[in-house]
Amino acid sequence: MSQLLETIQLNNGKLVNIHFHTLRFNVALKNHFGIFTDIELSEKIIIPTEFKIGIYKCRITYSPKIDKIEFLPHNYRDINSLKLVYDNTIDYHLKYSNREKLQKLFEQRGNCDDILIVKKGCMSDSYTANPVFFDGKKWWTPNTPLLPGTQRARLLEEGHIFECRITPDDLQKYTKVGLINAMQDLKNMPVIQPNNIY
Question: Nearest Cα to 14, choosing from 44, 70, 58?
Answer without folding.
Answer: 58
